[in-house]
Design brief:
- By secondary structure, the chain is an alpha/beta fold.
- The protein is 40% helix and 20% strand.
- The strands form three sheets. A seven-stranded mixed sheet has the order 7-6-5-8-9-11-10, sandwiched between helices. The protein has a two-stranded antiparallel ribbon with strand order 1-2. The chain has a two-stranded antiparallel ribbon with strand order 3-4.
- Helix 1 crosses helix 2, helix 6 runs parallel beside helix 7 and helix 10 runs parallel beside helix 11.
- The radius of gyration is 21 Å and the shape is elongated.
- It starts with a strand and ends in a 6-residue tail after the last strand.
- The structure holds glutamine.
C-alpha cells in the first residue's frame, strides 16, 4: 500500500519522461478519474492508502496516456461551451478555439422555429449540438462520413436530449441531405491542416486523432474548395466555417465568389479563426 500522493508523484514523473507538457495536471485528472474524485478531492486525499486492486486500473490508464493518447479520450469526455461531450478513440477532441464559431454565429441565428442547420463533419457533434441547445427552434442535420464520429455524435445527441430535433446522417459533405430539404445555415469545422504539417504536430494529434478530421490536403484548403461553393449555394441564410491560421482571407474570398458577404472572426489568441458568409449584407 502506498499513499495517493506517492502514486501521483510517480505518475507525474512518468508523464514528464514521456514528454507530456501538463504532466502533473494530467496525473491528477487521471487518478481522480479512476477513483471518482474531482481535483480538489485528490488533494484532500493525499494520504489515503491505495490498495493494489485500486492501482491496477489506474496503471492501465496511465499507460495509455504515456503513449500520448489524448487525455480526453481516456477520461471519455471534454467540455465545450459549458457542456460535456462524450469523446474517445476515433474522434477529434473539441477545441476551445471552436467556441469562436459558436460565439460569432449565435447572435446571427435569430429565433426562427424551425431553423434548419447542417453541421458538416460533425465529429463529437460539438458545434451543431451546442447551437441546438442554445436555439430551441433549431433542427439539425449532423453529418459525418466516419463511423466513430457518427457513433459519438449519436451518443451526444442522446445525452443532451436532442433526439427530436437532430438527424444524424452518414455521407460526404452535403450529399446526405436530400435536395428537397431546406437548409438555412451550414456550419463546418473541416480538416484544414496542410498534409505536410501533420508530421510536426504533437503526438496526441499526429499519432491518435483521426486524419479524416485534420488533413486538409497540400495547402490545407482542399475541403473548402468543394465545401464552400456547395454550402453557399445550398444555404438560404448563411454559412460558418472554422479555418486554420492564415486561411481566413482565402476562405473569405471563396465565400465572396459564391455571392455571400464574408466576415472574419478572431479567436481568443487573436488568430482569424472563423469565416461567416451571409446572403444579405449585414445592416450598417
Ligand atoms: N484545430 C485542430 C488542430 O489544430 C485542427 C482541426 C481541423 O483541421 N479542423 O489540431
Amino acid at each position: 500500500m502506498k499513499p495517493l500522493v506517492e502514486v501521483l508523484l510517480a505518475t507525474t514523473e512518468f508523464f514528464r519522461g514521456r514528454g507530456i507538457p501538463s504532466a502533473r495536471l494530467d496525473a491528477e485528472l487521471l487518478i481522480g478519474h479512476a477513483l471518482g474524485l474531482d481535483r480538489v478531492r485528490v488533494y484532500l486525499n493525499f494520504d489515503r492508502p491505495m490498495r493494489d486492486e485500486e492501482l491496477e486500473p489506474i496503471r492501465a490508464l496511465v499507460r495509455r496516456r504515456g503513449n500520448r493518447e489524448p487525455l480526453a479520450w481516456i477520461v471519455g469526455k471534454k467540455e465545450f461551451y459549458g457542456r460535456d461531450f462524450a469523446v474517445g478513440p476515433g474522434v477529434l477532441v473539441p477545441r476551445p478555439d471552436t467556441e469562436t464559431l459558436i460565439e460569432a454565429l449565435l447572435p446571427l441565428l435569430g429565433d426562427a422555429d424551425p431553423l434548419f442547420v447542417a453541421d458538416v463533419g460533425s465529429g463529437t457533434g460539438c458545434i451543431g449540438l451546442t447551437l441546438a441547445m442554445e436555439k430551441p427552434g433549431l433542427r439539425l442535420f449532423a453529418i459525418d462520413k466516419g463511423e466513430a464520429p457518427l457513433a459519438f455524435t449519436k451518443q451526444n445527441v442522446e445525452a443532451l436530449g436532442l433526439k427530436e430535433r437532430v438527424a444524424v446522417l452518414r455521407g460526404e459533405l452535403l450529399d446526405a441531405v436530400p435536395p428537397s430539404r431546406p437548409l438555412d445555415w451550414i456550419v463546418s469545422n473541416p480538416p484544414y491542416i496542410p498534409s505536410g504539417e501533420l508530421a510536426g504536430l504533437e503526438s496526441e494529434v499526429r499519432d491518435h486523432e483521426p486524419r479524416l478530421a485534420l488533413d486538409g490536403g497540400a495547402d490545407g484548403l482542399e475541403v473548402y474548395r468543394r465545401l464552400v461553393p456547395a454550402a453557399c449555394t445550398r444555404a438560404r441564410v448563411g454559412v460558418a466555417f472554422e479555418v486554420g491560421s492564415g486561411q481566413a482571407p482565402a476562405v473569405a474570398e471563396m465565400v465572396a465568389k459564391a455571392g455571400l458577404t464574408p466576415t472574419i472572426h478572431k479567436d481568443l489568441g487573436g488568430i482569424e479563426r472563423v469565416v461567416i458568409g451571409q446572403k444579405e449584407p449585414a445592416a450598417g
